[in-house]
Amino acid sequence: MPATIMPSDLKTILHSKRANIYYLQYCRVLVNGGRVEYVTDEGKASLYWNIPIANTTVIMLGTGTSITQAAMREFARAGVLVGFCGGGGTPLYAGNEVDIDVSWLTPQSEYRPTEYLQGWVSFWFNEDKRLAAAKQFQQIRIDQIERHWLSARMQRENHFSVSATMLGEQLLRFRNGIAAATSPNEVMLQEAHLTKILYKLASQAAQYGEFSRAKRGGGSDPANRFLDHGNYLAYGMAAVATWVTGIPQSLAVLHGKTRRGGLVFDLADLIKDALVLPQAFIAAMSGEDEQAFRQRCITGFQQAKALDLLITSMQNTALNNSCVVV
Question: Would you list the DSSP string of 47-97?
């Protein structure tokens, strides 16, 4: 009889250093011989595939999946977030009450860090300090766009050639607009304007032709579908960052007035435009399928240390804006 492997026996890997995000469909997730595995059926045979939970951040369960109570217990012990979603990774569903689009079954633990939550709530009820935190997030977003769109890796892409001068001018304009903003609404107007410009620059850089952003799928347009898919991956990483730091997703600094999961949107914005947006157009022009695009995004997240960035940004914002007197 195989020996049972307990999560406590596994080497702990910081969430910011974990490598795996899984999207599963048409399979069962269960515990077999002490290991968490997913099972697929081929004819009369059942194929078992191991999930290395100690090196995994997010599991997305798509169409035709089921999961056992034992598997959920092991995921919780290893600190893995689980989300239920539709085919292709979007839209996202879950059984808790956060937001229907971005909700996760987070692991339960009584030993989450407290200093970041205490620092966060100490400034969160002050509108000026909350606005300052939103501006800090947007400056990080700009830095990431500039860094990755003009990186050596992007320069090697055959299907993406962006004008550094044009991009620099637009980012400078956005940076100045954010600095001058006096309310969250002004920040969001600046954000919406930049996003439209980035869609235009990306479609031109990829020679994609006319592009109009469509919500929830985008029909037959591959760039829209890839944008939705990649954005949900970013939401998953943002949810991990909030769980690691112990800060509730309802304590948003910009998107939280109508969505209880607004902090996930705030965080995801730090990497969506920088990493997902150009890859969506590149993948569309290359004729890739959903699986190839998903792997492209995950590889990009890993190379950019995106989860590390999200967690560090949360920690720095909580501590640097804290009103707690030590």
Answer: EEEE--GGGEEEEEE-TTEEE-HHHHHHHHHHT-EEEEE-GGG-SEE-SSS
